[in-house]
Each structure stands twice: as structure tokens, then as C-alpha cells.
Write a structure and sequence with these properties.
membrane, transmembrane helix, 183 residues, transmembrane, 2 helices, mainly alpha
């Protein structure tokens, strides 16, 4: 090989080595740039995430606050509605109770009136029974008309002394006794 061919091969090798070195240095700078870009992107993404988290936390707090206010409003509305319903029910129950008490009082007075009438009827029936027994006793022992009249007067006096307002009614000939008073 001659001088020029060695020089040419040397220059070509030097050129290849220079270009190769330049390419390695260029590739190194590209890798370094890519790494820096990666770091910058990662920082930007993390910062964006932090901002998003902050915004989301603010919105969550705001929504929580609004929800708490709405829940409080609903609680108050439910309480007032429940109080209104309870007062309406109590009013209805008190009206029913007063109506029942009024009906009970009127029933008591009616029952008292009926019982008083029945007592009078029992007294009248008792007096009639005594009168009929005395009459039967007087008819068994025939003593005459005068004795029967005396027995009737005695029965009348006895009935007047036991019950001032009830008179002895005459006995029915059919055997049925009519009642007087209210029943």
C-alpha cells in the first residue's frame, strides 16, 4: 500500500471515527435532552395532579358543605312536618275524645234517667204485688166488704208512706200489669 492509500484509509477511518464520535456525542445529548424532558413532563404532570387534587378537594368540601346544608334543611322540614302531623293527630284524637266524653256523659244521664224510671216501675210493681197479695189474703178470709175496704186503705197508706209520689194503681182483671213511668 502506498502512502496515499494509507493516508486515504487513515483519513477515512478518522472521518468515520469523528463522525461516529460526533454521532455518539449527539446521541448522548439526545438522551440527556430526553431525560430532562421526561423529568420536566413528570414535574408538570405532578404539578397538574396537585392542582387537580386541590381543585377536587375544594369542590368536595363545597359539595360536602352543600350536602350538609341540604341534609339540615331536610331534617328541619321533616321535623316541622312531623310536628304538624302529630299536632293534627292530637287535635283529631282530642276531638274524638271530647266527643266520646260528651257521648259518655249523655249516656250516663240517659242511663241514670232510665234507671230511675225502672226503680219507679219496680216500686210500682212491688206496691201492686203487695196490693194483690193483700187482696188475695182478704179474699181467702171472707170478712165482708168493710174488711176489704180497710185492707185497701191500709195498703194505700203503706204505699204512700214508702213512695210519696207513686199511687197504688188498680189491679188489672186480666192479670197483666201495666207499667208506668219511662222505660
Amino acid at each position: 500500500m502506498d502512502f496515499w492509500s494509507v493516508t486515504f484509509v487513515s483519513l477515512s477511518a478518522g472521518l468515520v471515527l469523528t463522525i461516529g464520535g460526533a454521532l455518539v456525542i449527539y446521541m448522548g445529548s439526545l438522551v440527556k435532552s430526553a431525560y430532562q424532558l421526561k423529568i420536566e413532563i413528570k414535574g408538570d404532570v405532578e404539578e397538574a395532579f396537585r392542582r387537580l387534587e386541590g381543585d377536587v378537594e375544594k369542590k368536595i368540601r363545597k359539595v360536602k358543605h352543600e350536602l350538609v346544608e341540604e341534609v339540615d334543611k331536610i331534617k328541619v322540614a321533616l321535623q316541622t312536618d312531623n310536628q304538624r302531623k302529630i299536632s293534627e293527630m292530637l287535635d283529631g284524637f282530642s276531638k274524638r275524645l271530647s266527643a266520646c266524653e260528651t257521648a259518655l256523659a249523655s249516656d250516663r244521664t240517659e242511663i241514670g234517667t232510665v234507671l230511675e224510671g225502672l226503680r219507679r216501675d219496680v216500686t210500682v210493681l212491688d206496691q201492686r204485688l203487695r196490693f194483690v197479695r193483700r187482696e188475695q189474703k182478704a179474699t181467702r178470709e171472707p170478712q165482708g166488704v168493710g174488711a176489704t175496704l180497710e185492707a185497701a186503705e191500709a195498703a194505700s197508706d203503706t204505699a204512700s208512706s214508702t213512695e210519696g209520689e207513686a199511687d197504688i194503681p188498680p189491679a188489672d182483671t186480666d192479670g197483666d200489669m201495666a207499667t208506668s213511668g219511662t222505660a
